[in-house]
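User: Show me an example of a complex going from sequences to structure tokens.

Assistant: Sure. Here are the input components:
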Amino acid sequence: MKLLVINPNTTQAMTDSILEMARRNAHSNTTITALSPEYGPRSIEGHFEETIAALATVETVAIHRDQYDGFVIACFGDPGVAACREITDKPVIGIAAAAMHMACFLGHKFSIVTVMRRAQPFMEDLVRQNGLEAKCASIRYTDLSVLDLDADPRRAGRDLAEAAKQAVAQDGAEVICLGCAGMGLLDEQIRSVVGVPVVDGVVAGVKVAEALHSARLRTSKVAAYAWPESKELVRCSPTLIRAAHR
Amino acid sequence: MKLLVINPNTTQAMTDSILEMARRNAHSNTTITALSPEYGPRSIEGHFEETIAALATVETVAIHRDQYDGFVIACFGDPGVAACREITDKPVIGIAAAAMHMACFLGHKFSIVTVMRRAQPFMEDLVRQNGLEAKCASIRYTDLSVLDLDADPRRAGRDLAEAAKQAVAQDGAEVICLGCAGMGLLDEQIRSVVGVPVVDGVVAGVKVAEALHSARLRTSKVAAYAWPESKELVRCSPTLIRAAHR
Amino acid sequence: MKLLVINPNTTQAMTDSILEMARRNAHSNTTITALSPEYGPRSIEGHFEETIAALATVETVAIHRDQYDGFVIACFGDPGVAACREITDKPVIGIAAAAMHMACFLGHKFSIVTVMRRAQPFMEDLVRQNGLEAKCASIRYTDLSVLDLDADPRRAGRDLAEAAKQAVAQDGAEVICLGCAGMGLLDEQIRSVVGVPVVDGVVAGVKVAEALHSARLRTSKVAAYAWPESKELVRCSPTLIRAAHR
Amino acid sequence: MKLLVINPNTTQAMTDSILEMARRNAHSNTTITALSPEYGPRSIEGHFEETIAALATVETVAIHRDQYDGFVIACFGDPGVAACREITDKPVIGIAAAAMHMACFLGHKFSIVTVMRRAQPFMEDLVRQNGLEAKCASIRYTDLSVLDLDADPRRAGRDLAEAAKQAVAQDGAEVICLGCAGMGLLDEQIRSVVGVPVVDGVVAGVKVAEALHSARLRTSKVAAYAWPESKELVRCSPTLIRAAHR
Amino acid sequence: MKLLVINPNTTQAMTDSILEMARRNAHSNTTITALSPEYGPRSIEGHFEETIAALATVETVAIHRDQYDGFVIACFGDPGVAACREITDKPVIGIAAAAMHMACFLGHKFSIVTVMRRAQPFMEDLVRQNGLEAKCASIRYTDLSVLDLDADPRRAGRDLAEAAKQAVAQDGAEVICLGCAGMGLLDEQIRSVVGVPVVDGVVAGVKVAEALHSARLRTSKVAAYAWPESKELVRCSPTLIRAAHR
Amino acid sequence: MKLLVINPNTTQAMTDSILEMARRNAHSNTTITALSPEYGPRSIEGHFEETIAALATVETVAIHRDQYDGFVIACFGDPGVAACREITDKPVIGIAAAAMHMACFLGHKFSIVTVMRRAQPFMEDLVRQNGLEAKCASIRYTDLSVLDLDADPRRAGRDLAEAAKQAVAQDGAEVICLGCAGMGLLDEQIRSVVGVPVVDGVVAGVKVAEALHSARLRTSKVAAYAWPESKELVRCSPTLIRAAHR
């Protein structure tokens, strides 16, 4: 399949590491492209940035929807996923949902380890929106920013491994989900410290997209993700206006 | 207080009726302005449109954040509310959250009556995100579109009243929340048919904004709604770039 | 509006501070009266006292139901609120429900800080009864009794601020609800220590009552809060017998 | 054991049928007394009446707490149970809680069949307060009043059996709980129609009280049901004042 | 009644202590027999062992179903209970469900104290399956194995009491459930340290079985526990083949 | 990968259709084998049969655990999955869990359509155990038995399609999960009638197993699925005794 991995964070180094994780774990007959939207925040750490990135992601899917067989949204806030599912019926997979659902097959409960405190309530909402409260042991945050992951990977890995250890020791976690698209290359370091499976969302997203594509399963168009209603989009970009039509 | 009511649906007739409902129910010392963002869909019925409207709403709050004491987001999907709360600490109130919380003081459970089927799962997510599942008896939909409300208010009122009656008779609803910003002027018609309190979100939003302002309660900045982190917003509008700075 | 604030704790000093908080935060066109029932415990810290206070509160509303436009029940156990709603259709607002719902507009989750340990399970039930489990980060208790709040406000403020700090640091609270009607005057002290919004239930109760009154929203009479059925009340007070009739 | 069954509804015919059900199902070494409080409503169908009955029940337990080994509160709203548990450490069992917990051993889910519509939200709260939402298939109401049960038992049995059949056929109920203390003598009639176990709360309450007494299990005094704090009860009855002291 | 207590752990010393607890707490007219299945693990600490024990327990009930009036499954994982309920309509009571439901009458919330860590997620599932999440404060584990309980009861009692104390002090527990059938004889030791009611599942199981038998309440056969469908059981034991027929 | 699909129902025709569905949807580099345990019920429709099948499935995994890279348990009750995960760290996937998790990527909520009524409570437990209550719209049953699926596929397809249509029209389902391993070949028939994605558990199970294997994700051994403790298994089969050792 031809799979487009979109990094809503407009930072090339992060897109590079996402692409590396995706390619390492893709099937041999999957072709992966990774890119960022044409605009948006360097990194996504709050709702303001996520709201910009969500629209930018929708525009990116709109531009490429005919060229690819599926889409992975590589930010652990799953920005724009619901909207993207309306403008295509091909698989659109958020890495947070993918990581959490995959984690459910690996242990009794998972914890998410992530960047700064403001990410915690954000991810609590995400867990609830996916209906997975009962399987989420905790969301542990650190002092890291998203861009620290690339700037100082050693420290990042150490801090995340420490958070993961506490999740396993104190919260009942049996699996760790990495709570940011830029953490994938740290997975082995964390796993070796904490001794439980570590799920990178990018990897999980690729595998879920491949699975759905291979099983010919497409997004339901009966309600939540029906094609957009026909209407005027006042002063919106041509991309969005085209996207609104099937 | 000076209160800005933002209608994320870019339809003037709807903005007019929203303003009328807001003014009718505001305190005498509240000054209400109502407007739509500079761009966006004529009406919001799905995630695609909501994603556009969310960013347009954030930009609108960004432009006006120093001129007003509080903001009501007049679309029953509460688009952009979380993001707006990051760029100001003044009250930012979504009408869905406002209607649902106010309804809890009026009866044991509320139902939402709304437009077409695709709105139902959307609002289920909203109920869950607000943590009010236990108080929501049902979400009943009709065949109406958002713009039908203005185009044929008689039919709209009749269909919504019928949905409301079923919610009361079969689902255990004791209060009805009107599930669209454009339904306010139908409240008396529906109330007279169904015999239980009918809560318009615009009214509820104005009252909650006034309440918080009067009590000098401002948005918590400790985590979920902290001011945006400092970073580059690539190719974003000057409005957004300014908004990112406190 | 004419608003009656009932302090179910029969302690005048507490009623005085409740009145002060209510008046400070009321709209200019709201007239506030505060009083205690004619009988009942000096303070309410358990179910036994709450059961007495609930009936005393109902009798108090019964006596005054024609003289006022709304009622605030100023005890963080919301004693008798459901019963009072049956004997009037004007707003009857419990301060616990009011504080918790208002807190939902200010941050992602709230914690309650309260008096002695026995209050904790009591308030857990209250949170559940209001269906707000998902928004309540924790209920933190101290060694204080209700009457300690007035006897030694400095210590009370310090202990509550400490509990609030732990709620923010460890439990994910972004807003603090003061878990007793007698804590209002400590709000600034606590807010200055903990750095997040602090919601006093009396203030919240007054604002919600004003909001509903202004929006002409009255209690639903379709089921949970229908007028009492006609029947004999054996050896009950004349007040109660009259209250049973609309 | 010596067991006191308190009927908070002050109707002798109902107390008689409660006593009959209790005695039929008690162990041979259990002595049952049944009585009503000295005051209160003839029947309990709403919160107003329940609030009166709760205090009357507490006074009744207070008067008799030294003469009996356990107490069953025979009203399906469990009025005053929490308060009664504070003034004794002997078992105090509400028939609603008893019926629901016992039903859990008999089938996958239970439904409650009860009197008029206003009882439904009341019992929904009760189910939630007992934490049994996941085991309650539905609460089905009829047009009956509490006193209709005695006045026209044939119709009552027929209407309740019909409600029970619908609960089994449509809601997934496998067990039926009778949602009023006065329904016990109808159990066989309903069971023969509906073909699933029918649990009378009075019977369940007696069995649970016997079970706890026999196992020497007493109410925990560490928090929720600790002995009342020492304090003045202003203008309360001598019975209540004595009750407040262990 | 004639009650069969089945210890799915094939360790005679454990069966002996279970029998002692059961007899101590049974009514005078209850005759208790205790035995283990003919095969199975010495102790049950995980799902693998539980799966073996479940089938062994079913076979044991199958063999004895006509000789007894009820069955208690004395392992805190309730192995095979649902299956056993299909092949008889007499009470089949798992000690975990019995302990948890009884605990609900004794305090606001219970905690379970149990053996090694792997038991914790197992029991979390059990709590959820019984729908009692809201009443379970925590599940605290120790370093003990099941067989340590008999081998070194002093240490076991001390470690469990310590876990129980933490549950009461930190988790809000008001009642302790002993999370293994072999802990019953430690109940007094733990209760004296922790000061709250301690519920042994064997005792609770016996009391619930007696209660249901006395009230002539039998398992519902309408769905979840209907008699097995008629069909071939390939290469299964004669006991199982006979069990499949009513 | 070498994947073993185990059909716990000992019916060859069903195993054949399972194998066909598995092979149709497997990646080209996956080798699928399908077989039934050496003993067990012809079909699984209740807990009694499921308990037998669970142990038979564990023995089957035990025998083959070194020859395969992963295991799919092809019965929509997921019998023995937890136990199997203890005796290997390779993926062990139950088809119910796989279908439900995959369905979450395709629509807002899924419904399960299944055989006779007794399957409904069984599957409700399964949904809860997987923590997916919020995503499950309903479980609709028919009059079919498991073996009817093969005996009269036309009727089976028609009845299941009818149940699926009701789930979509009345319950809010957007995706249909086929609630039995023997329904796979009916997927197209049902999809064409109901117009939403139809997920066969066998297909989902194969895709999830492939995904985890490809991503080198293995079962967590820290608690719930740790290797069995060392102990005597009295009179158990040599297969089980060997299985207990890593």
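The lines above are the inputs; the final block is the predicted structure for all six components together. Chains C and F do not touch (no CB pair under 8 Å).
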